[in-house]
Specification:
The protein is mainly α. The chain is built from four helices and three strands; from the N terminus they run H-E-H-H-E-E-H.
Length: 96
Amino acid sequence: MNTAFILMAQYNGRAIIPIEQVCKDYFTHLTPEMFQRKVMAGQIKIPITRLEPSQKSAKGIHIKDLADYLEAQRAAALKECAQLNGTPRFRNQGTR
């Protein structure tokens, strides 16, 4: 399964997804402002793309960056599950 292709279908082929939409779909516990603060503080490791150099420019997340982030979160969850359960079945099933 390719996460980027799934996201392309979900977002109708858009390359940059507005932060508000990303929060609504994947960070429901955060407002867009809190999401941006967490990204800037390094607590959420995903780059924010500005469409212009201006501070007031529209901001979003590139679809590839979102796919990479989701895959990294999945890999971390698989590793944690394997450690908790002591099962090698989940090891080496990270990103493809």
